[in-house]
Amino acid sequence: MILQKPYVVKLIHMFEKYNIVQVLRYGLVGVGAASTHALMAMAAFYVAGFAQTPSNFAGFISGAAISYFGSYYFTFKRTNGQPGGHARTLPRFALVWLTGVAINVGLFQTLLSLFEIPFALNVFIAVALTPMAQFLMLKFWAFKK
Asked: N or C: which end of the chain has fewer CB within 10 A?
């Protein structure tokens, strides 16, 4: 059977050791949250007739809700039966989110002003590094069991 091959066993152990499944879940939640943000913003603007900024804010709040509940129940598999529940994790999640915004904007501005990194590359770097930092903060602090 293929699952008994040595290279498959090593791969499975690596997935378990580095919790790669959790990282993949985090990525899926992120894609879901970003998609929800975009869809809600578009619906608020084009369907409901909201102005641009309130439309984007509505999308942002929707995406943040998907991100929080997806992280809580899917990525980090918290349940209401654990100490603190939402009363503990929601404020921590909000702080991690605000820290992520600061990292993203700060890194972007630093790379732009000190190194004159081209815009597209700068956006890519900020978008790649911010979720990594947020994942670590969420895993080891906000949703720590």
From this structure: N
* 47 and 96 belong to one structural domain: no
**CB-CB neighbours of 73 under 10 Å:** 13
Same domain, 60 and 101: no
Contact call for residues 70 and 33 (beta carbons, < 8 A) = yes
Confidence class of residue 81 from pLDDT cuts 50, 70 and 90?
low
DSSP 143: T
- Residue 116 dihedral angles phi and psi, to the nearest 5°: 50, 45
Would you say 125 and 111 are in contact if contact means Cβ atoms under 8 Å apart?
yes
129, 138, 133: which is closest to 108 by C-alpha?
Answer: 129
* pLDDT value of residue 16: 83
- Residue 1: pLDDT band (50, 70, 90) is low
pTM, rounded to two decimals: 0.82
